[in-house]
Amino acid sequence: MRKVIILAVLVRLPVFADGGAVRLRGETNGLAVTLFAAPVPLSTGPADLSVLLQKRDSLEPVLDAEVSVAVRAIASGSELRAQATREHAQNKFLYAAPLTLGESGKWRIQLTILRLGVKSEIAGIVDVSPNQQKLTSYWGYVTLPPLTVLLFAVREQLLLRRSRRSKEALCKST
């Protein structure tokens, strides 16, 4: 029972890790650039944008670049900028930038890469959906305490009933 409770709590925890879904891929100035975004699907609120840079020919990871991320909501024009660093990333082959997306809709993402004095850019459009975190997404947290109390009460009733039967059986045998 304890394992089930621990598992239920762990399953509901939000996970922000490197990776997510591939949202943009392209090649520029001898580099293969891949942008991953989490959560999947990308939604308003906290987001993790991770960039994998590789040499186009050998696909070796490139670890000596400066990567910046600019995102702009097409509808409102609101813009966010962040420096993607390997320090923010769990996987040290990636450059990661945590951002908080404030609205749903189409967003233009532009990656700027500076490596060996050469500036490269790659851009694309991604869809950001409304955040679906409602009370229903927390059903495990909401139902676990009352369920635990209910199970405890049932257990106590069963123990009390068994104790009464034992006493009755003892009284009848004497």
CATH topology of the largest domain: Immunoglobulin-like
Instruction: Describe the main β-sheet briefly.
Output: 4 strands, antiparallel
Query: From the alpha-carbon coordinates, what is the Rg to the nearest angstrom?
Result: 26 Å
Taking the alpha carbons of the first and last residues, their distance comes to 39 Å
- Would you tell me the overall average pLDDT? 85
- Total count of domains: 2
Q: What is the structural class?
A: alpha+beta
In CATH's first tier, which class of the largest domain applies?
Answer: Mainly Beta
What amount of the residues lies in strands?
35-45%
Contiguous uncertain segments of 5+ residues: 1-17
> Strand sequence of the main sheet, in spatial order?
1-2-3-6
Kindly state the number of beta strands.
Answer: 8
Number of helices: 2
The ordered H/E elements are HEEEEEEEEH
CATH superfamily of the largest domain: Domain of unknown function DUF4426
Overall 3D form: elongated
Name of the CATH architecture of the largest domain: Sandwich
As a percent range, the share of helical residues equals 25-40%
Give a written overview of the molecule.
- The chain has two domains: 14-128, Immunoglobulin-like (Sandwich); 135-173.
- Mean pLDDT is 85; it is low at 1-17.
- By secondary structure, the protein is of the alpha+beta class.
- The two termini are 39 Å apart.
- Helices cover 26% and strands 41% of the residues.
- The strands form two sheets. It has a four-stranded antiparallel beta sheet, with no helix packed on it. It has a four-stranded antiparallel beta sheet with strand order 5-4-7-8, with no helix packed on it.
- The longest helix has 35 residues, at 139-173.
- The radius of gyration is 26 Å and the shape is elongated.
- The protein has helices at residues 2-12, 139-173; strands at residues 21-28, 31-38, 45-55, 66-73, 79-84, 94-101, 105-115, 118-128.
- It contains two helices and eight strands; from the N terminus they run αββββββββα.
